[in-house]
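Inputs:
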Amino acid sequence: MKYHISDTMKTMQGSAIREMFKTMAKPGIISFAGGNPSPLTFPVEEIKEIAQKVLTEMPSLCLQYGITEGYTPLIEQVEARLKKQGIYREGSNTIITTGGQQGLDLAVKSILNPGDTIIVEEPSFIGALNSFRTYGAVLKGVPVEDDGMNLDKLEEILKSDDRVRIIYVIPTFQNPTGITMSLEKRKKLLSLAYQYNVVIFEDNPYGELRFKGENVPTLKSMDTENAVMYFGSFSKILAPGLRLGFTHGIPEIMEKMVVAKQVNDVHTNLLTQVIASEWLKTCDIDAHIAKARELYGHQCELMLSEMDKHFPDFVKYTRPEGGLFIWCTLPEGIDAAGIVKKGVEKNVAFVPGSNFMTDMSKPCNCFRLNYSTMTDDKIIEGIGILAEVLKENL
Amino acid sequence: MKYHISDTMKTMQGSAIREMFKTMAKPGIISFAGGNPSPLTFPVEEIKEIAQKVLTEMPSLCLQYGITEGYTPLIEQVEARLKKQGIYREGSNTIITTGGQQGLDLAVKSILNPGDTIIVEEPSFIGALNSFRTYGAVLKGVPVEDDGMNLDKLEEILKSDDRVRIIYVIPTFQNPTGITMSLEKRKKLLSLAYQYNVVIFEDNPYGELRFKGENVPTLKSMDTENAVMYFGSFSKILAPGLRLGFTHGIPEIMEKMVVAKQVNDVHTNLLTQVIASEWLKTCDIDAHIAKARELYGHQCELMLSEMDKHFPDFVKYTRPEGGLFIWCTLPEGIDAAGIVKKGVEKNVAFVPGSNFMTDMSKPCNCFRLNYSTMTDDKIIEGIGILAEVLKENL
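Outputs:
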């Protein structure tokens, strides 16, 4: 047998990060490579109690087929929360997805023809970029500056390319940079999207994890023309293993997403939807998130202060006010991949910047650090080792 | 804003069955329309106990991100069961999917270019047909006979169309007909697939629900050339709300499916994967399935005997040996859609045959009955009403 592979999947490889993780799976390695939330933030006892309750009170509901759009009470709770946060827009719909990732994947499937363009922040989240690639997207990167995407570069592309269909951004505590787009740029970005008739994908899995500074309104909260598809997730505020996310956006596109979801996984896991719904109803989600914020704020501050103490001056890095990541930049011309290799040899893992780029084959002088999963001791030890590696190899 | 919709999604509508269900959602309606397993078969107490156990013993595992391919112990258990059933093939891989549906969806995404052909049984499962449509498949239907797909018609298409990439079949207790493909036809089908270098999708969600007759080996169990992608599901033997299925198949295709899954939902819900794994480990799945078989056997026999007693002679129907469905055929030229409408007026719901066809716009003289969710009283009452409707309207 000779097997046919579709043109769009032919060139797709598994995430390089994922492959790298395999080489990094050394016992006792200090890992700043992942993007996992801290298991300390999982409300285990609450989930355990709620699982008992819902399986006792409504077993058939938890275990039978359900509606593609999602469990209705959970949709209503998500919308109530979006209203409280000022994100909800009249005229937008909400569906529950199997993690935030599925929302992105179904939305791009609903909109994009192969050869159409998606503008992305450079660097950006590899899971989104790879999803877009599987639908034949032409990815055009726009550099991320300290206050977010360079909007002049963005407009240049919008002017010259009439096949731009989507602008994909993580405006708040961006993955991988930790950068938050300024209010001014957000407003300008919206007006450019309206002017050029391009839909914005606002991916906001980290938005609630602010541990410092002032809240900046989401794009969706200021979206007067219904140009924004807003993607949320329970992965970082409840638990990723439950695979729960949601999309709040444009009805014309949501309608197609529901059809695409129906043939993709019929509906999102009901047991965990019902658990999440009960959790939102009976537990104090704001107090819960406050604890997660405090933890991540502490971890980030510790990592930054160790980096300040030990890193050589030629390493520049972001100082995030929330989220899970710090982005480090080495002098021009240095390929961070070599540093990562040396780091793993010395038992410290992190991710080279090339993984987050539209062209992953080009050398990149940046790398990403995650601070959410290691203990204080390991953060101190790991940053010390990494500082030595940087000094020895540059 | 003017919204762009992708060419493949532009023509997609929500499942007509689903829309119909809304009009059928009358209080007290007797529904033979769904395809749900009976909630009586859900092992609620076991799941409840296991949920406590796994959330106590391994909370982080249940709640953290996991591996795209699936929870390793569950993969091993699925493979062990496939081995016991003779279905497992050396040289094939296994992944856990978010329901059986996701396996189909990812596999076709991995293989198909828009404009490629998929041969399907006619009638067939609308969820699969719609998934294929969203990837731009040209669907060519081959009539289902009493012993399965007409293989002469199949070969005609294979001979004349060099873009056939997939033959999609539900060989055992087919949805919607309840028909099982004969061993002879299965062997011939395999040899045709080898000869024309076409991959077979063997969808087998009902295979374990045999309540009568002799077991017929799956295509995969006889697949010497690795041409068969085998799709299994926990929906009908454990519970659909958990969204658990698996694919066992060709490594070259599975590898792309894993990449597609990673950008689709990252991984399948871990809480329910761990619950299913623990259930397989500690509970007697064979005894459990035996009870489901007994229930469905009883319900099917009751429905058939009521149909035998009350249906007018001109209605022909299948006599399934397993699964969830009976397929009824009216005289040529009658459109079953009219009968369905009359049925709903009299409080009995079922699905017109056109929904299961490659061309859904054509009138169809068939309809599908499901017997798994109604009580004995309702089956007797509903078939009585339906018999009256048939007599009055033909």
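Remarks. Chain A is about 45% helix and 15% strand. Chain A has a mean pLDDT of 96.
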